[in-house]
Every structure is written in C-alpha cells, then in structure tokens.
Amino acid sequence: MMIVDLIDEVDFKERLIALGAPVTQEQSLAQVQAAVLSWLQEYPEQTPFIKDLCLDMQKNETTVLPEVSCVVATFV
Q: How many domains does the chain have?
C-alpha cells in the first residue's frame, strides 16, 4: 500500500489560516487567491511567510492538486 502526501484545497486553506491569512474554508480558491493578494498588499511583511509556505509545498515530496498548484504559483 502506497501512502501519498496530498495537499488539497482544504489543506491549503488550513495552512493559510494558520499563517493568519484572512481566508475561510467556505471560500473558493479564486476568492482565497484574491483575499491573500489583497492582504499581502495591505501587510507586505507577511509576504515571506506566504512565499515560504508555497515554496515548501512545491519542493517537498507532496502531491498538490492542480487547481491548488495554480493558486500557489501566484504567490511565489
């Protein structure tokens, strides 16, 4: 049996919420993207934390769903 570390929409939102981003589980990925980009404009000091999260998701041996990967790419 193979176990795959998978990052889906719920996991991604949980990680953003843990960083203090103003997102909720109810938002679509497009809404999350817009909310985080707006938040980063207002609080640019948060940018390194979001970038680190996204880079970590991209480089680790995790599988990121394509729709999540597209949003992640906008933050790197």
A: 1
Domain assignment of residue 1, yes or no: no
This prediction has a pTM of: 0.88
Q: Output the DSSP codes for the chain.
A: -----EE-HHHHHHHHHHTT-S--TTS-HHHHHHHHHHHHHH-GGGHHHHHHHHHHHHHSS-EE-HHHHHHHHHH-
Q: What range defines the domain where residue 66 resides?
A: 6-75
Percent of the chain with pLDDT over 90: 72
Provide the β-strand partners of residue 6. 63
Question: Is 10's pLDDT higher than 60?
Answer: yes
Asked, for residue 14, whether it belongs to a domain, the answer is yes
